[in-house]
């Protein structure tokens, strides 16, 4: 009768634990994803290794720009971006091999492709895609 909410017995609720984990800071996220990418790029040449922090910073800035500019709305309810999307981008980057991606430009193209695959393909509006 109260909007579909039924009371739950307190003895049942006492069997569960509730944890609140705060969202990691910007610096923590950068450190985590940059460490993953730098570790993967160890067998690559120096030119490719040097762009790891740049790609990580660009990914973080792109992620935050999309969060700010494209919030979910009733018509765009699927515009929910989270850390899983960042992880998918970096997962695509760590699938690269030194023999196929010997230059920084090629790795940057992979980064662009992963960002388009993970973020851009979800956008449905022409204006959002231009952003």
From TrEMBL:
One of its GO terms (cellular component) is dynein complex. Residues 59-129 form the Dynein heavy chain 3 AAA+ lid domain. Gene3D superfamilies: 1.20.920.30, P-loop containing nucleotide triphosphate hydrolases. Coiled coil: none annotated. PANTHER family: DYNEIN AXONEMAL HEAVY CHAIN 10, DYNEIN HEAVY CHAIN 6, AXONEMAL-LIKE-RELATED. GO terms for molecular function: dynein intermediate chain binding; dynein light intermediate chain binding. It holds the Pfam family AAA_lid_1. GO terms for biological process: microtubule-based movement. This is Dynein heavy chain 3 AAA+ lid domain-containing protein. It comes from the Eukaryota.
């Amino acid at each position: 009768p109260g909007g579909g909410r039924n009371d739950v017995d307190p003895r049942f609720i006492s069997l569960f634990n509730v944890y609140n984990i705060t969202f990691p800071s910007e610096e923590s996220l950068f450190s985590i994803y940059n460490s993953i990418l730098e570790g993967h790029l160890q067998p690559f040449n120096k030119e490719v290794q040097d762009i790891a922090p740049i790609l990580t910073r660009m990914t973080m800035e792109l992620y935050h720009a999309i969060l700010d500019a494209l919030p979910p709305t009733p018509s765009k309810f699927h515009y929910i971006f989270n850390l899983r999307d960042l992880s998918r981008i970096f997962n695509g980057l760590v699938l690269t091999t030194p023999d196929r991606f010997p230059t920084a430009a090629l790795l940057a193209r992979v980064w662009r492709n992963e960002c388009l695959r993970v973020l851009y393909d979800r956008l449905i509006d022409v204006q959002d895609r231009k952003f």
